[in-house]
Amino acid sequence: MSPSAVASVNKTDMASNLTEAGVKHTIKDTAPSIAVNGHSTGLQELDASKITFTPNENPKAVPEANSPEVTKMSSCTDHMITATWTSKTGWTAPSLIPYGPLALQPHASVLHYSTSCFEGMKFYRGHDLKIRLFRPSLNTVRMLNSSARISLPAFPPAELQKLIETLVAVEGEKWLPKSRPGSFMYLRPTMIGTAPTLSVNKPNEVLLYIIACCFPDFNDPAATLGAHANANNNESPNGNSETKPRPGLKLLASKEDTIRAWPGGFGFAKVGANYGPSLLASDEAHLRGFNQILWLFGPDSEITEAGASNFFLVWKTREGRTQLVTAPLGDGIILAGVTRRSVLELARERIGGEELEVVERKICMWELEEAVNEGRLMEAFAAGTAYFIMPISLIHYRGTDLHIPFADDNYGSKLKQWLMDIMYGAESHEWGVVVQERSLIPSDLDE
């Protein structure tokens, strides 16, 4: 770099937050329509109205609920949606095509530098037989933040939601038949850097794709054990073939040698690099009879997440107040979960007041340990898309088993039921977005 180039850099810009500035520049340069003070770039933005359709001529059979195919979480629907982006032209027209392998060069950016982000969502067959998504706008905005965090191109979140709705509309009738009310499937919108170069730079070629996958109901104990058995050489989390249901999650608290996320990092973004490094500890936890890792951070052992879910507890303070507590978002260590946000909003709106104080603050393990020993801890649960709301029965911390109380009429169960009512149509609510189903009829198809 020449001396003149260095001298031209504004000192204020040099001192600014690099991550925040980089995200703003990425959005401004790749999706100016949603940027503050955006400018014309000449690049095509993502446009769901341009989608083309190609039917799958070899459709698959739908597996039975909680069958081995489902618990392996590897059976996807007949179609997927794709769109590509290049730094020269922007986004191509999206396509709904048969589900199948992707073509990548061995030196594609995603394979070497983890330029990948994704979302986890579900769509639901309601008891009223309608198909719904749950707060999809929160997922699409979060995916925009994740993609910009790792220098992948931005997009209007509303356009991504339209594409998600299109896949759901086409696949819903077959894969969530009306004969299975109260069922769901998992959605995985994903973006990866496909540029074939080993240059350590932001990729100039990208693929966006959306798939739908059969998923077990982790609130069914047998399904939970089956999923863990498939991930651990067909053994149960206890290292044997037993299938006896166990109430609640058993968590192994992480130690100082294993850190999931840290301030200034990317724990708040749903990027691939957050998950791969955690698998080693998670697998060891499974082999020792635990369902997940309880991720701790710092010298005070602050509780951050339970596996890939947000952690909640309900306790009595020494002053006698009942509190629902979860870790805050401010330091960027934990993911801003959609279920997390929904739990907090419903708790404040429908309980709150003198009955339940809703608190977002750091929780240290010594506080939880004291609450258990003093009989003040009332319950704890994990909240996320995959596990939904799952009670926690035990936390192993520094050689001690902390047993967590559980009652059928606790706050976690109440919040879970309210959310299920919205997801499955028992309650009409703006969070439940109805999707009109459609078939791949000739008028949908390309000429």
TrEMBL record:
Keywords: Amino-acid biosynthesis, Aminotransferase, Branched-chain amino acid biosynthesis, Pyridoxal phosphate, Transferase. It comes from the Eukaryota. GO terms for biological process: L-leucine biosynthetic process; L-valine biosynthetic process. The modification N6-(pyridoxal phosphate)lysine is found at K270. Residues 229-242 have a biased composition (Low complexity). PROSITE patterns: AA_TRANSFER_CLASS_4 (PS00770). This is Branched-chain-amino-acid aminotransferase. Signal peptide: none annotated. It catalyses: L-valine + 2-oxoglutarate = 3-methyl-2-oxobutanoate + L-glutamate; L-leucine + 2-oxoglutarate = 4-methyl-2-oxopentanoate + L-glutamate; L-isoleucine + 2-oxoglutarate = (S)-3-methyl-2-oxopentanoate + L-glutamate. Belongs to the class-IV pyridoxal-phosphate-dependent aminotransferase family. GO terms for molecular function: branched-chain-amino-acid transaminase activity. Its EC number is 2.6.1.42. Pfam families: Aminotran_4. Its cofactor is pyridoxal 5'-phosphate. GO terms for cellular component: mitochondrion. InterPro entries: Aminotrans_IV, Aminotrans_IV_CS, Aminotransferase-like, B_amino_transII, BCAT-like_C, BCAT-like_N. Residues 229-248 are annotated as: Disordered.
